[in-house]
């Protein structure tokens, strides 16, 4: 399949522009982690805090469904993997333009993360990351995340689209497969989650 141009996917429009910047100081990963929790969702993009809208109800329901399917498989097959949910913080870019993303879901092996940190965000990239499209996302922002995830060492990225009832599976920033609930397609875990296979329709069975 040729690379997808996310900005032009059917059924979606760039409904909002990038969130406003907060402050004028470029923050480091350590400074961002040390900030008091305000309860307002945000990410650190190129050293600048960018707020974003809380997840809507459908987004949250689908996130819970995918987390359940993943965790059920990991427990059943005794895989040495961790399932992280709730917009886990992932440092994707270090240095002067530190970027910390809030991933909807992440699957990381215990080989990459032997011990859960008591505080802070992930400084090692999970093998699989899941992003769920909602009204507050733009396709440009989503593609930037995909690129950062693979640059950091991700092996798979799933982009779950509730409006279109589709899951787009990226094996790299350019290579992807489109899976549709209406076509009876199955979502698999590849080398990251051996044996994992569920109908795409199960992702949206809310």
Helix content: 10-25%
Stretches with pLDDT under 50, minimum 5 residues: 1-22
β-strand amount: 25-35%
SSE sequence, one letter per element:
HEEHEEEHEEEEEH
Radius of gyration using CA atoms only: 17 Å
What would you note in describing this structure?
With 206 residues, the chain is of the alpha+beta class. It contains 4 helices and 10 strands. The strands form 3 sheets. It has a 6-stranded mixed beta sheet with strand order 3-4-5-6-7-8. A two-stranded antiparallel sheet has the order 1-2. It has a two-stranded antiparallel ribbon with strand order 9-10. A hairpin with a 4-residue loop joins strand 6 (156-161) and strand 7.
Record the SSE blueprint.
Elements: H1 29-34, E1 42-45, E2 48-51, H2 57-76, E3 81-93, E4 99-109, E5 128-132, H3 139-152, E6 156-161, E7 166-170, E8 176-180, E9 186-189, E10 193-199, H4 200-203
Parallel strand pairs: 5-6
Antiparallel strand pairs: 1-2, 3-4, 4-5, 6-7, 7-8, 9-10
């Amino acid at each position: 399949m040729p690379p997808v141009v996310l900005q032009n996917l059917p059924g979606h429009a760039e409904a909002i522009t990038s969130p406003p910047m907060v402050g004028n100081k470029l923050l480091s990963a350590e400074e961002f982690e040390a900030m008091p929790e305000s309860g307002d969702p945000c990410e650190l993009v190129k050293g600048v805090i960018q707020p974003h809208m809380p997840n809507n109800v459908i987004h949250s329901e689908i996130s819970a469904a995918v987390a359940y399917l993943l965790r059920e498989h990991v427990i059943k097959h005794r895989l040495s993997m961790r399932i992280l949910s709730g917009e886990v913080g992932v440092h994707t870019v270090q240095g002067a333009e530190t970027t910390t993303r809030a991933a909807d879901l992440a699957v990381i092996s215990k080989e990459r993360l032997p011990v859960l940190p008591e505080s802070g965000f992930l400084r090692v990239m999970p093998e699989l990351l899941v992003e769920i499209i909602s009204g507050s996302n733009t396709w440009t922002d989503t593609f930037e995340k995909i690129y950062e995830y693979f640059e950091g060492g991700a092996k798979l990225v799933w982009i779950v689209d509730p409006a279109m009832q589709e899951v787009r599976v990226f094996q790299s920033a350019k290579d992807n497969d489109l899976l549709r609930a209406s076509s009876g397609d199955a979502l698999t875990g590849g080398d990251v989650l051996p044996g994992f296979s569920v109908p795409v329709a199960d992702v949206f069975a809310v």
